[in-house]
Design goal:
47% strand; outer membrane lipoprotein receptor (LolB), chain A; single chain; alpha+beta; 13 strands; 19% helix; 255 residues; 7 helices; 13-stranded antiparallel sheet
Length: 255
């Protein structure tokens, strides 16, 4: 669940490039049923109860863009009922902050200024943030179909097409050996248009009963960024993190 949380808008503000190649599609009769792969993944990372119990979390680490030699700090905080904020600080660029809740999503950054996130971009945030959505529950996922095999990071995985009730489509890739969700592919909507994106999860570690990828490599539009988590704490975040920036309050008042 936490790996998908890291995909929300604050992180997708930076452009990255797809670099992993898909392998040959396996014969349909050899492919496991998609729901069985999803349930295996849920159990492999700790089980549904353990995942749902981790409703409040603070994660800190770094975000690196190797191609341009930039590394900055990363903070992701979540609290009940369903609220999340992401803060990225990059040297020479400043702070990028994004907030997400079922009623409102927003971002403030030095490149685009303050803005409200709406439409298809908002739908994608909900698909990547809600706990039930991260477990591909039927409330959020209309259909899941195993469509072939792929390879990411030297691991073979089953590629599953996800059709969301929101109208989006994406692909998961579940490792043959471990059952972990090791990659996700999607067509992301942003103010710059639609972009193919790939996230590859690595270095899985158990933290308080839930297995979490400590490294996520994302690629979109020609660049790679690497998110490395150094500390994960299942505690109540500082409420000040979730306060709306004045510029966002102004946008809401002007609506």
């Amino acid at each position: 669940m936490l790996s998908t949380k890291l995909k929300v808008a604050g992180i997708s503000l930076l452009a990255l490039a797809m670099s992993q190649a898909l392998a040959e599609t396996a014969p349909e009769q050899d492919l496991p049923e998609a729901r069985s792969l999803i349930e295996r993944y849920i159990e492999a990372i700790g089980g549904r109860d353990a995942i749902m119990a981790q409703t409040e979390v603070v994660m800190t680490g770094e975000l690196a863009m190797p191609a341009v030699g930039i590394t900055g700090s990363l903070l992701v905080a979540s609290r009940m009922p369903i609220e999340q904020v992401i803060v990225v600080e990059l040297p020479g660029m400043g702070e990028m902050r994004t907030g997400v809740s079922p009623e409102l999503a927003w971002s403030v950054d030095p490149f685009m200024g303050p803005r409200l996130i709406e439409g298809e971009e908002f739908k994608a945030l909900m698909d990547n943030t809600m706990p039930g959505a991260t477990m591909r529950d039927p409330e959020y996922v209309k259909a899941a179909t195993t469509v072939g095999m792929a390879e990411f990071g030297g691991q073979s995985c089953y590629r599953v097409k996800i059709e969301w009730h929101s109208g989006r489509e994406s692909h998961d890739c579940y490792a043959v050996d471990s059952g972990f969700l090791i990659a996700m592919e999607s067509l992301e909507t942003s103010p710059m248009g639609q972009m193919e994106a790939v996230s590859v999860m690595e270095e899985f570690r158990e933290v308080e009963g839930v297995v979490i990828p400590m490294v996520i490599r994302q690629t979109i539009m020609g660049m790679e960024q690497v998110m490395t988590m150094h500390d994960i704490s299942f505690e109540t975040p500082d409420p000040a993190l979730f306060e709306l920036p004045p510029a966002i309050q102004t946008l809401l008042e002007d609506q």
